[in-house]
Amino acid sequence: MKTVLNVTKIVFQSFAMGKPNHLIILLLLIASSCTVYKDYPIDILSPAEVDLANNIQNIAVLSANFRPMRDTSMYYYSDYEKVNLSSETQNLLHMMMTSRSLKSFSQAVSLNERFANIEVMPYNYVPLHFGDSLLAFTPAYIKEICDAYHVDAVVVLEVLSFKYSEFGTVYRSSPETNEVSTIALWRIYNPTNNAFLDQKIMIDTVFWNSNEDTWETLNAPNMNIACGIAAEIAGENYAKRITSNWEKVNRMYLVPPLEDFKKADGYLNEGKWENAIQLWGKYTDKKYGKLAIHANYNMALAYEMKDEIDQALKYINKSLEQVISLRSNKDIMMVSKYQMVLNERKADLAKLNFNEPANDELLPIQF
Questions:
Q1: CB 176 within 8 A of CB 79
Q2: Contact 39, 250 (CB under 8 A)
Q3: Highest averaged pLDDT of the listed ranges 96-105, 219-228, 347-356
Q4: Which residue, among 290, 306, 294, 277, has the nearest Cα to 338 in the 3D structure?
Q5: Could you give phi then psi for residue 167, rounded to 5 degrees?
């Protein structure tokens, strides 16, 4: 490969004077072979699934302390057969898991810095109560909390249901896992109307794998620790729903065997995007054929990194035009996929500036 590249460089120099058409033909031939596809990790800000209004800056977080009478998934230890836990153990587990879930939610939201102040209420702020269906708190009660603690909304963990399972090895041909499944119903109340700002049932499962050779579970915690970890994850996952989050993703770029693209690759890895843009920009014209596909694709990545999504879309659209005109089946999926990603990013950025809350009706939850 090194010999070919050296010869090619000499040919470029010999044709550079007075024979541009031959040069372009050589560029096209090189672009169709030996192109390297590389990944570039970036951090992108994903919008919240539910974007609360900007005037909601202070929140209270509490448990409804409600337990369904007929919740068959709650409070039992399973090892092939259900073994009911004592009432005392049930109460201690419920208290521990609820408290850790609320604390985990509050810490995750606090790290995001979405809210100015978060008031976490004690576990028993609302007295323990049982029932066949879950009703919403009244607007008057929510307003009372908001006035007393100077908050704009109240986040309530209405129900936290769980099942801890320990799979043994008797009667089984292979080991499975220890796991904790949780079902959490969250609501966010607005004191000014009868609609929820959000209502969501979150279902999560945390498991620990077993070792097939020793038939022993690897690093599996006991029931109390496992349930605590699962409760914390339930809180963190709901926090992600109402806050924007940084997410690490990989983007791809292309390095054909041309000196300018190699230099641009070096600039890219140094974070010198403007320098890379200058080099890629030489080859964006359609006369460069497949090389233009790659140059425009890379330009789109550069402008995404600069948070100029409209410019990124301009170049990925040019790349797609070239793909279609050349009928390059190998590249059409690659370019189309990145075009879709950029359109999604544009929509996500619009959501980050969208301040209208989502409303849900006040419907009872049956168990």
A1: no
A2: yes
A3: 96-105
A4: 294
A5: -85, 120
pLDDT tens digit sequence for 65-102? 888 776 545 444 554 545 556 777 777 888 999 999 99
Residues in the chain: 367
Q: Which two tokens stand for residue 134?
A: 């879950």
Please choose, from the candidates 24, 15, 23, 30, the residue with its C-alpha nearest in 3D space to the C-alpha of residue 286: 24
- CA R_g for the chain: 29
Q: Which two tokens stand for residue 321?
A: 């035009």
Distance of CA 168 to the CA centre of its chain: 34
For 75, phi and psi rounded to 5 degrees? 60, 50
CA distance 160 to 201: 10
Pick from 366, 359, 367, 64: which is nearest to 200 by CA? 359
CB of 351 within 8 A of CB of 171?
A: no
Best CA proximity match to 96, nearest among 231, 281, 198, 192: 231
The single-letter DSSP state of residue 196 is E
State the DSSP H helix or E strand holding residue 120, giving kind and residue range, or none if neither. strand 117-120
Contact indicator for 54, 46 with CB cutoff of 8 Å: no
CA–CA separation, 285 vs 353, rounded Å? 35
Instruction: Name the helix (H) or strand (E) containing 37.
Output: strand 36-46
* Least confident piece of the model among 13-22, 155-164, 199-208, 285-294: 13-22
CB 182 within 8 A of CB 234: yes
d(CA 356, CA 51): 7
Nearest to 201 by CA among 145, 164, 159, 162: 159
Separation of alpha carbons 338 and 202, rounded Å: 31
Place of tokens 């209004």: 53
Q: Which helix (H) or strand (E) holds 176?
A: none
Copy the structure tokens of residue 329.
């089946």
Closest among 343, 283, 278 to 317, alpha carbons compared: 343
d(CA 97, CA 51): 27
Distance, in Å, from the CA atom of 196 to the CA atom of 191, rounded to the nearest integer, reads 9
**Type of residue at 294:** H
